Amino acid sequence: MYSWWASMQPDIEGDSNNRSVLQSFPENVGREVVLSVVRQLANHLSLTATSSRSGSKYQRSPLDTEKEVLWTMEVICYGLTLPLTEQEAVKNCVNVYCEWLSALTIPKHTTPTPLLKDPNFFVQKILQHLINLFLPRVQPRLQGLNMHETTTQVMLCHRVLRTIQTIATESIVMTRQTWEALLKFLLAVNDTILAPPLEPGALSMVPIPDSLAEQLCERLLSVLFEIWLLACGRCFPSPTLWRTLTTMCATWRHHAATVEQWNRINKVLTSRLLKILYGPEFPTLVIAEEDSLIIPVELDNDGIAQTWFRFLHILGNPVDLCRPKVISCTPKFLSAAVSYQPAMEPHQFACLQALPHIFLKAMRGVSVVIDAFLGISTYTSTPTDPHGARTPTHPTGDTPPQGRKISRKEQMSTKPTKEKVTSSHPPPLSSQASCASFCTEDTGSGRSFPAPKRSECNSVLHLFGAWLFEAALTGCKSRKILLPSRRRSLAVDACTNTTNFPFGKAFKRHHSIAVPDASRAAHMSDLRGVSMQDPFSASVAANPLFDMSEFPDNYEAGRAEACGMLCRIFTSRKSDEEIQQAYLGRFYVAFSQGVRVDEGLSGQVLSSILYNSTNLLRIDLKGVQVLIPDIITALQIVLPEREMRFQSLVSNYQLRRASIHLLLSMLCLPHHFKDLPIQDLMTGKEMITEDLLGRPELVTFLSLKPKLVDLMITAVQCETDSYNTQMLLGAMHFCVLDSAMSEEMEAMQAEMEQQKNILHEEEEEEDSDEVSNEREKTKSFYRDSEIDDKRASGTGSRTSSRSSITGRSDSAWIIFVRCCHLVCQRLMSAWSTDYTVALAALELLAGLAKVKIKIQDSLECKRAVKWICDHIVYQCSRPSMYHSRDLHSIIVAAFHCLTVWLIEHEDLLKDKECLQCVLEVVELGISGTKSQRKASVAPVFKQDKELKPASMRVKDAAEGLLACILYHVGCFPNPCGPASIGSLLDEESLLKYSMSANSYHLQQQPTFRYFVLENTTLVAVLERPITDNSDEILPTVTSIVRCPTGRHVWTMQLRHCSKKDKTDTSFRLTTINRPEPDDNVGTHHEITSRHFPETVDKIPLTQADQSIPSLEDIESDVTRSDHQKLEHLIDEQTEYEKFVCETAREEIERGGFPNARTECKPPNPCREFSSARLILSHMGYLSLDSLKETSNTPIPPAVVALDSTLGSFASDLNLLDAIPSRTYDTAFVFYVKAGQSSAEEIIHNVTDRCNVQPQFLEFLGLLGWPVDVHKHAGWTGNVATSWKMTCAKEKDGTSDESTEDPLAQSSESHGGSLYNGETHVLYHADVMSEIAFVVPSVRHAGHGNRRHSTGDAIDSEEVTKTSSLLTHKSSKSLPMNLRSLTLELPPETAPPSTPPQVSPMSSLERGRKSVHKKGLTVGPEIKVLIVWLETFDDREAFPLTELLEETQTGLDTLCQVKPVLEPVVVLMFIHPLKSGLFRIHMHGRPNQAIPLVDGMVVSRRSLGTLVRQTAINACHRKRMETDSYSPPHVKRRQKIQDMAYKYRSRLSVPEFYTALFADSNK
Questions:
Q1: pLDDT of residue 683
Q2: Distances from the Cα of 656 to the Cα of 612, 644, 937, 1067, angstroms
């Protein structure tokens, strides 16, 4: 700077104004004069001080004239040059001058009168004389050295510096000449002391140990720079002085204090400059409190900018610090080298050995300034630091040189301070609702993101680019263009996992990463060979705690700092910023040179580049893909190793984390760019390598996939950090999913092309033979030419060699198998005790089970299920001391994972061994032990076991798995669609179906009987058949089964014959007709019948026979008339009977045979049944044992009748139906345009598709399928509209078909607002969970605000209106069409998405409303926000607090007591890149759910699936962490038990049987 101005350095060095006239006399003469004069002045000072303390009159100075003062000053000038043996005289001289300097501020009483009249003139003289005090005192080599003398000189110099600093600060009368004299004085003393080398000097003289330069260096420079800053505010230095300062500072750069003080001043000025340029909202560079006072208040904004720029360049080019020849090319070094014996070169002085450390300090100082302009924190707390300590970006070494004693004041001023970038305002994302859950740091690298209003990269590079690029390439040799064979040596073969280093032998990395000792020793010897050229960077530190910043023996540490700073600059690129191509090219070259793994390997540079390049591949840098081969090669020496084999500037886990981030950014590239070739950075041509057969092959993105997969697998094997492992597990999930989807698309495209080829061939066959032959010749000619060209260019065998050699080792199935094997093995060993990693691993296994992939070997799936079962057994069998909530959460997650596997792969249960293994684990979870632990041990029957589960949570999870196996495996989705896992019918719907035309006018309507079975299942039995088919009368019962898994409706018929038999039942009950009668019966003989044989009349009568008298003998006159009347009646009856018999005989004769009246026939079939009694009897629930209560236990009998006549029964029944059978979650999607920070603007974006990107609408379609809120039977994102199907027209009581929602009319032009929850939402469900995706938007007229919709829907009278549900006597709900109704599906069943056209779930609406009144306990509230960012920097200004008001789901109104903790917020930012990929940023805690992790770059095809699965997993994790949460089936079971206790009919066994036979309708 100011190169066109002349420097004043020669004038300052040759100035003789500090020479006294006494120096012309012999030494003893001058000494005697000084001692005499100075002694008198010292006595006068002491007397004056005594007088001032005693209050007596002080004595005036004896010097009254200017001539006297000047003569005295000549004496004092000489006195300041006396040797330190005369320290008393030297001290008195200093005291006198310090007293006289006060003339510029508040003069002392001893100040001579001339100084009072013209203080500036005399002060200028004094400053020139004081230079003599700072001259080093040298002694002959053989004389003893007095340490006390050096200390005295140092103390006197400190006093002078303090006095000068005081008068410069407090004086208001200093003229420009005085300011210039002061600055020249400081320049002169600094140059005198700091310019020479700290080595044995010339003239056989040596400096005193702990020399003056070492003790005064820091103090001199601090006073110089602080006073220079003061001068900039009060009397801005002239260009000549600036030029002089720059020239002289260049000669002091071999002192570390020079760079330290330079960094200190730059930091202070930068802190002030940031406020001027960017305002108070920009992150402030915090500095020490004492440093903030060194900038004068008089320095205005322009002065700050000018001073900052000039101070930045006073050291010249900092890269010169790594060039000893440049640093030593000064007159003082040259003269010292000439005078030194034996002769030596100037750059060979030992003091220059500290240049690497000084270079590192300079680069760190520049980095601090650049980070401040970018808004990047220098010191942050890494999220996964095991010790919770605050670690810097790089280790610091800003400590004073060892051996220097520091005063107490200096110790106070040099205390370590937290140098970090903070914001004067709270971060926008740290809202009151989520301040405990969020951090503003990058969870991947431990640093904060750059500020949104940061400087542009081009501006920073204009200022510092020349220094950084030069420093980054320091010591690098230009890389030669590598031949194909050399390229091959740097590659990692996918089959053998072998890395060939050019400087040594190859070492193999097996899947177990167990490198043999011999191979390891060979590699270490290779690294030692490299250390001959670069010993510090390539050697392995013996002590892992070695501090890299403590005097490195080469310049790699400073180069690493420069490379890291370049990476931070380029990764801070804004979304809409264009970096100059010249800068990009130089950066790519520096990056490529820094990550070299050949003989130029530098561990410090490599680690710094990787650590600071986490965002390199996800910021749309133009042409950055040329670095991918170099990055992969660098990762191959980092990720597959547990311990680094080179020196690293960062910790092992931080370096691995940064490498994993780069890996996450590259996994999506092979299938995205496919066969696109990669160009060589140095040649600009397509990169060519060799395959295993030695044939040339183009390096394409797809060819890199095996290397990336191997890196991912081996990294998981070697990783020990929890968060790093979770990132890799997320990468595994994405890799398998993306590969499977890509292969599916390729298969579809191949099938379409095959069909096109078939059609094309058919068309060709129709052509003539001549045309066909000519075309075939032409094709053959071009085919041969193409083959020749490919062979000449070396690309002809690319596809064939790849497919034949690798054998599709990177297919989705192979990756699937490798991931399953590795994760299951690690889950049983290293991850079994790590809570977060175990959860992530189980989430990965569950996610892999959901991937739609062609199963090539079912044994692999069985093996995975077996591993999961073994993991559950292992965790449950651990000693009780290890059982904790975290351990039980792992077991619960394992049961959940096992459920997913069985649901997605239902064929697994067809295998006997697999089914037995699963059921044993279920038994273990429920009871705590297995029935048969070993084959040699007799089994224990389940009814004899004592239930001792690991915990109730584990028991509930095992019961949930068993329920899924029994209810849902192979049965999902049901005919109602995935919106419901149970029946959509309820009592009201069934009553409508049960009423036929004949029962329309009946007053008695059918009712339900309610029973609780086994204290877990509530059964509602409708005894009236729902079919009215006179052709076939069967005992029919319709039951509503409410169990822990949901509500199910069964219609059962008691059948005695096959349903396939179509014959009529009445025909089946009719006997066969008798044969026709035959009149030819032979001769008819008239025979008189006798009651007794004829011999009876021959027996004589005895006296006993006559003991009973006859009637005539005993009758009297009175009774005779009665007897006659009776006899007459008998005769009449006899005649009548004879007449009847004759008449009947005649009718029979006339009627023929057989007679219908007398013929025997079967009874008519029964039409009235006690269906409830029959079904309970057939199920075995009407035995005495089932009705018997167990004594001394609260458990009710197996069957309990409920009293449904109680008033609150209907309300509780609705409450039971309102409890969902699955977990339900809600995610809210927002779209943020570039530069938006207002909630209103963000919500308004989705109203028109012109405001959003087309990819956003495609992304919405991938999240779930759209459903109509009013026709949807599942979760809709709000309690008021969920689990019911009630059309809006029915609500309003109107049937005007012309009335349509304007939002529905504009559904084609919306930008996502259609799914705001008013009419539609996006929905996705599986067996265990359902999730709704809501896109909040501006509310349409006529629709209330979403957060008020729940409260408006609550009606206190609705609960009472449901009491008539069970005694249905109203005919208003009867259908108009009185046809024969049935629940059987027609032959052509409607699609699952079309539910039956009934009005079910109306009770659920009322039940849900009653939930609000009852204060039902719900699960933990977690807010999932998905934010689409057009500009990635807008994430910092996202108005979270305001938009949380738009995320109400109605769950907050379910609880009467306000929750103590605020809801947890999971924030997922999605930023579309120009390449067609998508960058993910997870804002929140580092230990979040997978598959998405912070920093991942995903493909377009897998984005929706990954986002949805991450949202579900995050909510699932939060539920497991909540103590008060219970699974849905547990809540339903508890509600059923409560109803059984509350509404149980206390009947004895006879009364129970009697009630069964009673008419339920009476």
A1: 82
A2: 12, 10, 49, 84
CA 1519 to chain centre: 16
Q: Which two tokens stand for residue 1050?
A: 């069964």
- For residue 580, report the phi and psi dihedrals to the nearest 5 degrees: -60, 140
Number of helices (H), then strands (E), belonging to the chain: the values are: 54, 23
| pLDDT at residue 477, rounded to an integer | 59
Classified as helix, coil or strand, 688 is strand
Of how many residues is the chain composed? 1562
Q: How open is the CA angle 1493-1497-1500, to the nearest 5 degrees?
A: 115
Q: What's the CA gap between 701 and 672, in Å, rounded?
A: 8
Apex CA 288: angle with CA 283 and CA 289, to 5°?
105
User: 1285 vs 613, 976, 1045, 1264, 1273, CA distance in Å?
Assistant: 53, 12, 21, 19, 6
Q: Are 399 and 411 in contact (CB under 8 A)?
A: no
Contact 601, 646 (CB under 8 A): yes
For the chain, how far is it from start to end, CA to CA, in angstroms?
109
- CA torsion sign for 888, 889, 893, 894 is negative
Q: What is the pTM of this model?
A: 0.80
Helix, strand, coil % over all residues of the chain, rounded to 5: 50, 5, 40
pLDDT reported for residue 54: 55
User: Can you tell me the distance from the alpha carbon of 1225 to that of 1464, in angstroms, rounded to the nearest whole number?
Assistant: 13
SS (H, E, C) 223-239: HHHHHHHHHHHHCCCCH
CA-closest candidate to residue 587, choices 571, 602, 576: 571
Helix or strand run (H / E) with residue 73: helix 66-79
Q: What angle do CA 516, 517, 523 make, to 5 degrees?
A: 95
**Secondary structure of residue 696 in the 3-state scheme:** strand
Q: Tell the burial category of 22 from Cβ atoms under 10 Å away from its Cβ (0-12, 13-18, 19+).
A: buried
Quote the CA–CA distance of 495 and 488 in Å, as a whole number: 14
Question: Which pLDDT score is estimated for 754?
Answer: 83
Neighbours of 69 (CB within 10 A): 19
pLDDT along the chain (1562 residues), means of 10: 76 83 85 87 74 60 86 90 86 89 85 88 91 76 53 89 92 92 93 80 39 86 94 92 92 92 94 91 87 89 93 92 88 82 77 89 93 76 35 36 37 38 38 35 59 89 93 69 34 37 33 36 36 31 35 77 93 89 93 81 88 92 92 92 82 91 94 90 82 79 92 93 93 95 89 80 64 54 45 39 48 93 92 91 94 90 94 92 91 94 92 92 90 73 81 92 90 84 86 59 68 91 63 78 90 77 57 66 74 81 82 81 88 92 82 68 72 85 83 82 88 89 92 91 91 93 92 87 61 43 55 89 92 86 45 38 37 35 40 37 42 47 91 90 87 54 84 94 80 93 94 91 87 91 88 80 55
Q: For residues 138 and 211, what is the distance between their CA atoms, to the nearest angstrom?
A: 10
The DSSP secondary-structure symbol of 1207 reads T
Please give the structure tokens belonging to residue 907: 């064929």
Q: Which helix (H) or strand (E) covers residue 1010, if one does? A: strand 1008-1013
For 1091, phi then psi, to 5°, come to -80, -30
Integer Cα distance of 590 and 561 in angstroms: 13
Q: Which residue has the tokens 């207002």?
A: 1238
Structure tokens that stand for 150 in this block:
């050096």
* DSSP β-ladder status, 696-698 and 688-690: antiparallel
The Cα–Cα gap between 1483 and 1495 comes to: 10
Distance CA 1221, CA 1235 (A): 43
Specify whether the CB–CB gap between 1287 and 1325 falls below 8 A: no
Find residue 517's DSSP bridge partners: none
> What DSSP designation does 705 have?
H
Say which residue the tokens 């540079």 belong to. Answer: 605
Task: Find, among 418, 419, 417, 435, the residue nearest to 427 by Cα.
Answer: 435
